[in-house]
Write a structure and sequence with these properties.
The chain is of the alpha+beta class. The chain has three domains: 206 residues, no CATH class; 44 residues, no CATH class; 32 residues. Helices cover 48% and strands 17% of the residues. The protein has nine helices and eight strands. It has a five-stranded mixed sheet with strand order 1-2-3-4-5. A hairpin with a 2-residue loop joins β1 and β2. α3 runs antiparallel to α4 and α3 runs parallel beside α5. It is elongated.
């Protein structure tokens, strides 16, 4: 678990059968969206790879962004594959001799970048790139564009790529992405938005009573909802806008505030008798 003050620090909360991976994004300089931001996805996959299990993911940044059980399983599957490949990277055994090293080493750097960077930040791009590499290597082998020793080395490399592509293709993420891959462009995250949709909940720890408008705020818009005035402000050095509302109870005249104070004082002093608890109608009258 990372330091609580850092961007991406997390804790695992167990509530009955629920295992909640709660990741703090309060100090992150980016919006906490797995589907929109590769940095956030990488952060979540890293945390899942470390913890090994979760039934819900919650990202916190002023609000709580919750990814439910189904979405969490999709991401957990990617995290487990990432962890598995990370542990196996020393045992890929592609450099059996100098000839193999000559042909495979430049390619191995390419595949490492895909597996240990893109796989956790953009697994769809990793999948598509691996397919292209697989086709390229297969073409080299088929056309015998290199000598026999080189072909033998590339065949082993090709088998490794094919096995990784196969594992990725069996994942729920890629299975759900397959119908949309025709229109896919590198680094485009539209498909993720079709698969991952968090529930956004207010975090009342950050709710404040502010009767006046922010002094350094720039007013962007204002409107009224059920007699409540809503004003939107842009604040310096803050990405998210501030919504300032003035609820009706803040707009009462002095006489009504005095009546409310009298009622509150009366309620504070009132001590109901035991028998009155059995007669709610009488309590209301009192």
């Amino acid at each position: 678990m990372a330091n609580n003050d850092t961007c991406g620090s997390y804790e695992v909360i167990r509530e009955g059968e629920e295992v909640i991976l709660k990741i703090s994004c309060e100090t992150c300089p980016f919006f906490p969206s797995i589907e929109d931001n590769p940095r956030v996805m990488a952060l979540v996959i890293d945390a899942l790879a470390e913890t090994g299990s979760a039934t819900k993911i919650v990202l916190t940044q002023k609000r709580d962004y919750e990814y439910d059980y189904t979405q969490t399983l999709i991401l957990l599957e990617v995290a487990k594959l990432y962890r598995k490949l990370n542990r196996q990277k020393r045992s890929f055994n592609l450099f059996q001799n100098e000839t193999a090293r000559k042909y495979v080493e430049p390619r191995f750097a390419e595949i490492q970048d895909i597996l240990f960077n893109y796989l956790k930040s953009d697994p769809i791009q990793a999948y598509m790139t691996l397919i292209r590499i697989s086709e390229r290597e297969n073409q080299l082998i088929k056309t015998k564009a290199i000598n026999q020793e080189g072909i033998a080395a590339l065949q082993q490399y090709y088998r490794l790529i094919e096995s990784i592509v196969g594992e990725l293709q069996q994942s729920q993420l890629i299975q759900q992405a397959l119908p949309h891959l025709r229109e896919y462009k590198l680094s485009d995250r539209t498909i993720y938005r079709k698969i991952l949709t968090p529930t956004v909940k207010p975090n009342f720890m950050y709710t404040k009573l502010m009767a006046t408008f922010p002094t350094k705020g720039e007013e962007l818009d204002s409107y009224t909802v059920n007699d409540t005035e809503v004003t939107i402000f842009k604040l310096p050095n803050i990405v998210q806008p501030l919504y300032h509302i003035i609820p009706p109870e803040f707009r009462l005249d002095e006489e009504k505030y005095e009546i409310l104070d009298l009622a509150r004082t009366g309620l504070e002093k009132f001590e109901p008798k035991k028998g009155e608890f059995t007669d709610p109608e009488r309590i209301r009258d009192v």
